[in-house]
Amino acid sequence: MSSTEKNTTQTGAAVTSSTAAAAVGDMPSTTSDDMFDNAPDEVPDNVPDGAGGNAGRSGPRRASRIFRSEHLLAPLVFVLVVALWSAAVSWFKVPAYILPSPAAIGKALLRNLADATFYQDAGVTCAEVLFGYLFGAVVAVVLGGLIAEICVLKKALLPYVIALQAVPAITLAPIFVMWFGYGQLSKIAMSALVSSFPIVMATITGLNGYPDEQARMIRAFGGSRWQIFLRVKVPNALPYIFSGLKTGMLLALVGAIVGEFIGAKTGLGARILLYNYQFNIAGSYAIIIVLAVIGLALTGLIAFVQSRVVFWTRHRSDGVK
Prior knowledge:
mainly alpha; 14 helices; about 0% strand; globular; disordered N terminus; disordered C terminus
């Protein structure tokens, strides 16, 4: 190539570079802030979740609105039931000794709340439920773990556990009163027995339903059976165990009340019997409402503990996907 052709080529390249630089200089500068400012505030309806820059922000807001609206359903159902109840009692002239009105039940509840002996009875029942439940839960988790891990114990004990649960609790209450007396011990024993079955079965189901792939991986790296139990089986079983614990708490309350029905001088169950003898049906309904509130509070406490311990399932319990 001659020197003239080389000069011509270099001159053309220089002109092209200067032209491109001038074009870039004429373009408006765009920063990252400008890009986010110019982004649309809302994602169109036809864009699926997860697409678009604003999807990450709109998703939690939508989930929060749904979460708040769902919490209004229970109060609305309560108001609707009370309104229909009041209208039905007034319209059909139902006698108070058959079905009292919500207003009469509310007055009876206020009278109980103003009575000091009511709190003594409530404390007795709550103590029976808690002590019986704690004892039954510990025994049930240990027994369920042994049955799930040891095949001989599963074949030897599981049929008796199921058969014992098939026996109605009301038939065992008189036997427990004969064994442990009319004090709180018989109610604690009844509460522990009734609450233990769902916890045992939930523990067995959770420990047997672990992912086999994770267990094989730990075995491939030389892990022991104890490591598989702690790292695979226990985390998989915790949601099942907490589900059984919530069911067992409600059954513990039922067991304590059944024991008080058979023989007790104090407790909310004894108070219900007293009101029935006095034909104070509104008072009995008031105590039933108190028992329902106690059950909701105790199961809510277990659900709170579950949300802190089994935190990886919290989004499923909140209904957010």
